[in-house]
Each structure stands twice: as structure tokens, then as C-alpha cells.
Amino acid sequence: MLGRAAEIDSSALRAVVTLQAIRGHQAELQAIANANGGNRAEGTSGFNASLDYVADQLFAAGYAVTIESFDTTANLIAELPGSDDRLVIVGAHLDSVSSGPGIQDNGSGSAAILEIALQMKALNIESVNRVRFVWWSGEETSSHGVLSHVLNMSMSEREAALYLNFDMIGSPNFVRFVYDGDSSDSVTVNPAGSEKIEAVFLDYFAGQGLATKATDFSEHQALPIFRIAGIPVGGLFAGAFAIKTTDEAAIFGGTAGDQHDPCHHLACDTFANVSLEVLDQFSDAAAHAVLYFALTSIVEERLADLISTVRGLVIPSKDGLSAKLDAALTAVEAGNERAAMNILRAFINQVEAKRRSGGLSNAEADALVATAQIIIDSLS
User: Fold this and answer.
1) I need a surface site. Which of 14, 249, 290, 292 has the fewest CB within 10 A?
2) 3-class SS at 165?
3) Residue 314: which residues within 8 A CB-CB, separation 6 or more?
């Protein structure tokens, strides 16, 4: 459950992040590959031209563009300003393999986050949190673009960051994979907060009536680097080398027994090697998630989670506790932090009273008090 913090209306952004515009960016990347030996690999003229194209689009939209150089190549960064309490990093690798143009891998993710960035600027969205869009170099070789970036992040940035990855989101024989943030379907243990990212995507797709499937991070070199650094991770993926199962075909359509992307890392990964259906669906989901984390403060999110926890308790007279938390969230949303802190202190007092009366166990009361105190400390 995402609580009231899930009430982010992304419809206006999704309406202008169009499939036509994303396909336009992919067409430009295809033309660049055609003019540069058939690929856009790191360290080549094709990659440099791809970097220039994205930078020119962002600059024209009003972004300050940063070229983060390392070794013989570079990442490209553009930011929306906001609170340093949360840093939302939105990434897609821009380089292709040397054997093909990489219009699905990863012209799909690169084009989608470019259009999201452009339209957030065009709509004059005032982000609550810092949003950092990054187009990575070197993912197809060693992910040293991602590694260089993470190693150069300050400790305060790492503590505030979460990472959303969009790689291969237009696979022709697709599955709607969502990264398994809560580790319920894989053995990978992810940093706290990863489960929230997964929940945002699952909540969105449920609202659209679209089936999803959990996936681990084994095919994505960027995600383990962020995960090892303790940064919450999540994102979307439509499939690569793996073979579509009969069950997947029954749910998502397509052809069982074929790869999710039969042209993965091949010369045939061209403009034609894309499912328009899943690219459209995933770009909308990406826009929603980026906006959700851009506009939802950590305090609001923690309060919403606490409200959900209280509502899930099987105790008598819990409505009073819920009412106080609702009032605290309303105060935070109105910018009245002092009032919110006072309400939360009253909430703690009420929790302690219920502990003394036996209405709450020590474990339940301890958890509620600790979370409320963390929120108070964040507001003070």
C-alpha cells in the first residue's frame, strides 16, 4: 500500500510523453548509427554524435547540461532542482554494442527518459526533490560510466539517492518485467527503499489493468553498482536473451520458445526491432514513477507508510491514531512543519497510552514510536 502519497496525478505528463516523440528520438539514433559505421558504441563517432544529439535537445529545452568525462568517454547529465533530502537518479545507457545500432538496447530507454525530461521542463513542473537524468556511457563494456559516477557521489548524495533504470523497454517479444525491489521473487537482497520503487510501478500497472512479472538484476550492469553502494534501485525491463516461456506467452502474448529480443546485440537491433505496445506502456509507467519520486517528499512518504501501518493493525479504537496521522500529513502538505511535529508528539503520547492499557504490544508500540520520532527529527 502506498497511501495518500500515491495520489500523484501523472496524466498530464503521460499525455505529452508520446510514443511518436520517443520514436522520433529513436529515428535520430538510427540515422546516427547509419552515418557512423552501423553502431553507436562507446568511444566511437557514433556514440559522440548520440551524446551531442541528446545534449542539444536538453539545452534547447532550457537544461544546463553536464558532460561527466572519464577515461576516453563521458556520461551526460541534466538536472531539475529540488530538495537535497532526496536525489532521484533516472538513468539509461546511451551506448550500443559495436555489432549493431542498439535502437532497442538501449535507444528505447534513452529516448524515453529524454522525452520525459523534455516534457517535465515544458510543463514547468516544480520538483520537490532533485531529479538527475543520466545517459550512461560504457554500459556495454564494463559499466565504468556508472561506476565512475557512483564513486564520485558525495556521502550525502548517496544517502539521499534512489535509482530508476530503464534498459531495453521495447523488446519485440516482450514481458512487462518490474525489478524485484522487495526480493520476494529472487535471492538478491536490495537496499531499503527498493521495495517502495517496485510498489510504485506495481500500483501503476494495477491501475492500468496490465500484468507484470518480477525480475532480478542479473542482466543489468548498472543496478548492482548502485545496489552495492546502498542506494535503492528499481526500474523496468522488457527482456533480452532469455527465452519466452509458455506461461509468459499466455499472459503477455508473443511467441513462446523465442528470445524476448531476438536481435539483442545484433546488427538487426534497428528502428524496426521494437514493440510499440510495450514501449508506449513502459514510457508512461516511467513518466509516472519519475513524477512520483520527484514530487513526493520523504516525510510525506514516511507518514503515508505509517498511516498504512496503523490502518493495518488489529486493535480497538485505532481511528484516533489514524486521524492524528492524517492531520500531520495535511499539515506537512500545507508547509506547517511545527504543527505537524506537535501532532506527531500527540500521536506518540496516544501510542504510549495504548501500550499501558494493553491495546498495543510493546513491539507494535516501539515500531510506531520509532517511526514517528524519525519523522519528527526530519522536520526539526
Assistant:
1) 249
2) strand
3) none
If we measure between CA atoms, which residue out of 149, 33, 202, 156 comes closest to residue 101?
33
Write out the three cell numbers for 300: 510525506
Indicate the residue type of 250.
Answer: A
Alpha carbons within 13 A on the beta-carbon side of 92: 30
pTM score, two decimals?
A: 0.91
Alpha-carbon span 328 to 343, nearest angstrom? 6
Q: Which of 42, 79, 115, 139 is catalytic?
A: 139
23, 34, 139, 212, 335 from 31: Cα distances, Å: 12, 5, 21, 33, 49
Q: How many helices (H) and strands (E) does the chain have?
A: 14, 8
One-letter amino acid for residue 290 of the chain? V
Determine phi and psi for 132, rounding to 5 degrees: -115, 110
Strand-pair partners of 236: 166, 178
Residue with cell 502519497: 5
DSSP classification of residue 174: -
Per the structure block, which three cell numbers stand in for 85? 533530502
Buried b (16+ CB within 10 A) or exposed e, 70-109: beebbbbbbbbebeeebbbbbbbbbbbbbebbbbbbbbbb
Alpha helices in the chain (DSSP H): 11-16, 19-34, 45-61, 107-122, 144-151, 155-160, 194-208, 222-228, 246-252, 276-295, 298-311, 319-333, 337-357, 362-379
The sign of the torsion formed by the CA atoms of 100, 103, 107, 111 equals positive
For 72-121, write each residue's pLDDT tens digit: 889 999 999 999 999 999 999 999 999 999 999 999 999 999 999 999 99
Among this protein's residues, is 139 annotated catalytic?
yes
* Residue-wise pLDDT tens digits, 5-49: 457 899 999 999 999 999 999 999 999 999 999 999 999 999 999
Q: Which three cell numbers stand for residue 276?
A: 510499440
Name the burial class of residue 229, with classes exposed (0-12), middle (13-18) and buried (19+) by CB atoms within 10 angstroms of its CB.
Answer: middle
